[in-house]
Amino acid sequence: QVQLQESGPGLVKPSQTLSLTCTVSGGSISSGSYYWSWIRQPAGKGLEWIGRIYTSGSTNYNPSLKSRVTISVDTSKNQFSLKLSSVTAADTAVYYCAREDIVVVPAGRHEAFDIWGQGTMVTVSS
Amino acid sequence: VIWMTQSPSLLSASTGDRVTISCRMSQGISSYLAWYQQKPGKAPELLIYAASTLQSGVPSRFSGSGSGTDFTLTISCLQSEDFATYYCQQYYSFPRTFGQGTKVEIK
Description:
Chain A is an all-beta fold.
């Protein structure tokens, strides 16, 4: 059974770069038709999609964060990573990594987040 | 950007009740919609995708309907473990967006 686990610093100083890694266990990150995504949630608020990567390296980013975000994948380590630069207090949130499954049916191509990591809290503060 | 409006934001209900949560899109998205359940301190869990397809392992008391701009999540007989926050999410276009959430609390 595939599981995801986020790791990285829980405290980042303003203006610095937030770096998180998601380790995939129980299966290969390269197998199947999946995108690998990052999603965040400020305390007491809703969910915000940050972006995703396919194992080919193809990425999609949220335009609201695109200038500051880089998502990369390391298939040899079965990991994918998030870098968010020039952080401010507004970037304080629980960060989740998630697998986006692709289901193709005659009526269309459906992509939903079927497996999530437990989430990691990142606080931006000096 | 596709904006999503969930209603109600808070729903008070009792065990055994039938509850309905609405999600309205700012533009049509065909059936490219998913529903998630989130409990406090936990990651969201996928309930439904393609607007009405139940994810494997999800109880049949959960159902989804709708197409275009108006969607509904129904819990036919609320159980104690269903008290949680529910989010809709569209994957018709980028960026992926979520509704603001509906908290289902015990009446």
